[in-house]
UniProtKB/TrEMBL annotation:
Family membership: Belongs to the GART family.
Site (Raises pKa of active site His): 151
CC per GO annotation: cytosol
Active site per the UniProt annotation: 115
Name of protein: Phosphoribosylglycinamide formyltransferase
E.C. number(s) listed in UniProt: 2.1.2.2
Recorded superkingdom: Bacteria
Annotated positions binding N(1)-(5-phospho-beta-D-ribosyl)glycinamide: 17-19
Organism: Paenibacillus spiritus
Catalytic activity: N(1)-(5-phospho-beta-D-ribosyl)glycinamide + (6R)-10-formyltetrahydrofolate = N(2)-formyl-N(1)-(5-phospho-beta-D-ribosyl)glycinamide + (6S)-5,6,7,8-tetrahydrofolate + H(+)
GO biological process terms held by the UniProt record: 'de novo' IMP biosynthetic process
Coiled coil stretches, renumbered: none
Length: 208
């Protein structure tokens, strides 16, 4: 089902924010469909991604988990702001925290994550290192819907990246990041235009 109004997007990040920066660039260039990035959220106020948001004029919500009594209270504060802002979709872009039901429930099916492997292979931390250690010839990137597990939600789109015999973690990461930046913008654009349909674990995108 196509959308009429622009989709209001909140991007979550904890670190450098390279995927966030790529999404901002895609929006500037008209490659983000009907999506509009209207909020940046981080659990690390000192993270470079926060500075990128400020430079781009994106409103920010910077909350330290240690300032709250528990994860539930921390996420409840986030949910309150997301609902106040009328957020349609949450895009995780290097957000280094597991999502709890407090945030997941009101946004079920509306949280995207990107992971640097072809899930279900190499979930969790250091997926690039895992791929190199295992000796695979192909790895890649996966965009998936977030559920209650770690990198276990329904796959929306994937891109394969060849692992070269000369690769180390840095060289492989460079090509994986390039694939991430291209694919994530396409998925967000497709979601904003109502071109992604979820049937159980099967995501129909019309080809991305």
């Amino acid at each position: 089902m196509s959308r009429e109004a622009p989709a209001r997007i909140a991007v979550f990040a904890s670190g450098q924010g390279s995927n966030f920066t790529a999404l901002l660039e895609a929006e500037r260039e008209g490659r983000l469909g009907k999506a509009r990035i209207v909020l940046f959220v981080s659990d690390r106020p000192e993270a470079p991604a926060g500075r990128r948001a400020e430079e781009a004029g994106v409103p920010t919500l910077l909350l330290r988990p240690k300032d709250f009594s528990d994860r539930g209270e921390y996420e409840a504060a986030i949910v309150e702001e997301l609902q106040r802002q009328g957020i349609d979709l949450i895009v995780l872009a290097g957000y280094m925290r597991l999502i709890t039901p407090v945030l997941l429930s009101p946004f079920a099916g509306r949280i995207l994550n990107i992971h640097p492997s072809l899930l279900p292979a190499f979930p969790g931390k250091d997926a690039i290192g895992q791929a190199l250690a295992y000796g695979v010839k192909l790895t890649g990137v996966t965009v998936h819907i977030v559920d209650g597990g770690m990198d276990t939600g329904p796959v929306v789109a994937q891109r394969a990246v060849e692992v070269l015999e000369t690769d180390d973690a840095a060289s492989l990461a460079q090509r994986i990041h390039a694939a991430e930046h291209e694919l994530y913008a396409k998925v967000v654009a497709a979601w904003s235009e109502g071109r992604i349909e979820l049937d159980g674990r099967q995501a129909k995108t019309g080809g991305l």
